[in-house]
């Protein structure tokens, strides 16, 4: 067996497709960022964490919408439609947060609402939608590879954009 990452090892042990493990790892990473945000003391720390979860959630949602959800939509139309709508609401909050510097009076409240939306979304996605991937007939190994490739490209583009913004400031 050729195991390339911790995620591959966990997937193999749990009998879970790698794509599902990857998405769950993203969920845990964002949950950790929200926890860090709660203990952030300065606006600079809050802004840094906002930038991180805006990037992570934007990339994650985009990949789910473009690659993961379409085959699920054929199996579970209502659940997938709800997930798309939850992403829509989350993206609106992310746009608002991306314009904040972390010192605003309502920034903590906005992040709290976002965190609660994400918790709800993750619970439904992990409990109801992702298990349906096995029923789609899709090549889940190929899906995982496609998501990895696109995620790396999007992360690199995000880092390049962030460096350009810092230099312009």
Shape: globular
Overall SS class: mainly alpha
Number of domains in the coordinates? Answer: 1
Average pLDDT number? 89
Low-confidence stretches: none
Radius of gyration: 17 Å
- Taking the alpha carbons of the first and last residues, their distance comes to 49 Å
Q: How many β-strands, per DSSP?
A: 0
β-strand percent reads under 5%
Largest sheet: none
Number of helices: 6
Index terms:
globular, 169 residues, mainly alpha, single chain
Question: Any overview of this molecule?
Answer:
The protein is mostly helical. The chain has one domain (28-163). Helices cover 82% and strands 0% of the residues. The chain has helices spanning 6-14, 18-39, 43-75, 77-98, 107-129, 140-168. Helix 3 runs antiparallel to helix 4 (77-98), helix 3 (43-75) packs antiparallel against helix 6 and helix 4 (77-98) runs antiparallel to helix 5 (107-129). The termini are far apart.
